[in-house]
Amino acid sequence: MGNLAPKDVAVSPEEKFKEFLATRGKRLTQERGIVVRAIFSDHEHFDAEEIIARLDKPSDGNRVSRATIYRAITDLEEAGLIRRVAHINDREVYEHDYGYPQHDHFICDKCNKLIEFRNDEISDILDRVAMEMGFRLSGHRLEASGICSECAKPPTRRHNKLDMI
Amino acid sequence: MGNLAPKDVAVSPEEKFKEFLATRGKRLTQERGIVVRAIFSDHEHFDAEEIIARLDKPSDGNRVSRATIYRAITDLEEAGLIRRVAHINDREVYEHDYGYPQHDHFICDKCNKLIEFRNDEISDILDRVAMEMGFRLSGHRLEASGICSECAKPPTRRHNKLDMI
DNA sequence: ATGAGTGCAAAAAGTTTGCACCGCT
DNA sequence: AGCGGTGCAAACTTTTTGCACTCAT
Q1: What is the pLDDT of residue A104?
Q2: B1-101 and B102-165 have identical folds
């Protein structure tokens, strides 16, 4: 779960997606609806495999195939509803990009957890530098790596004499 | 070509690699030497395929196989001589990380060109935010996307009446 | 003799695509 | 009738790996 509160949004992601699809002469089908709802049911980061695991199970009545899920994810990205945030373990990781403010991520090298943080100074600096260099900036992706506080906790141990020196 | 000047470095990348390999009980073989030199022959960003294209050609006497090139790249990354900077068109893109100062990149959405820029404020902010959040920061990767000045140039055209309104 | 190193070809893993059929969000 | 949409399986891409042989930085 991210540490950033969602903005109030007038239209649901599903509705927004429908509008986008319409501009491409496409329809919000049953399958695409299932995928959008699965993706926006919570604010977790996700990858294609996770959605496939949820929707491509033979037991479930509302099955959606891998191909359709991949195609829907591509469409959602083009619609600006989701965006790629990282590439972890050979998988593209996405997050919601609709109704949430710009933010960046820490990625723990140990547990691969993504931790969101928000800092406007960085965006401002980028705007300035891009301007200076004649680059027409549209967005950025910042992954800071290291060890999260959880993984940094030493395995529980007794006090060490060295602690007192 | 980057816009950042190389620092003076005492030891060549090849020598540095040799030292690293030694700590792992490995040797700087003929093949690994060829790969390092190919990679450090210029300061361009590169991906595995480019190196393979140069070294895995049947016509050349100093051929190195794909497998060995991939293995060498992995070792070079662990040695801290190169680092991943981006993931473009399904390929991992690397750059030299030895003898060059920390910097970030703009990536042109049109021509995929990587443009380096340096800004210490960003690193400082990250250090501060990481500290506040109890994250043990080790590095970061920042890709700012948009259109480079080259691609932003409008195709040569006549003045448009609309320009004057 | 020993252990690291190499090349090859096959395997992985994630993602994309050609195709035939379906159905009207 | 038309066109977008879906599922399936095969194809594709990049990267990794098992294996047998080689070599000595």
Answers
A1: 95
A2: no
CATH class label, B102-165:
alpha beta
Q: Give residue ranges of A with CB < 8 Å to any B CB.
A: 87, 106, 108-109, 115, 117, 119, 121-122, 125-126, 129-130, 133-149, 152
The hierarchical CATH code for the domain A1-101 is 1.10.10.10
| Strand, helix or coil for residue A164 | helix
CA atoms within 13 A on the CB side of A159: 4
Any idea where the domains of chain B sit in the sequence? 1-101, 102-165
**Nearest residue on chain B to A138, judged by CA atoms?**
B146
Which pLDDT tens digit goes with each residue over A88-119? 999 999 999 988 888 999 999 989 999 999 99
Nearest CA in chain B to A85: B143
pLDDT value at A161 more than 70: no
Question: Which uninterrupted H or E stretch holds B91?
Answer: strand B91-96
For residues B1-17, give the mean pLDDT: 73
pLDDT at B153: 83
Q: Which pLDDT tens digit goes with each residue over A18-76?
A: 999 999 999 999 999 999 999 999 988 999 999 999 999 877 678 999 999 999 999 99
pTM of the model: 0.86
The rounded distance, in Å, linking the Cα atoms of B5 and A43 is 43
B108: which chain A residues are within 8 Å (Cβ-Cβ)?
A: 135
Interface of B with A (CB under 8 A): 87, 106, 108-109, 115, 117, 119, 121-122, 125-126, 129-130, 133-149, 152
Left, alpha or beta for A90 (phi > 0: left; psi -120 to 50: alpha)?
Answer: left
Which amino acid belongs to residue B156? T
Tell me what pLDDT residue A5 has: 60
Report which DSSP code applies to A15. Answer: H
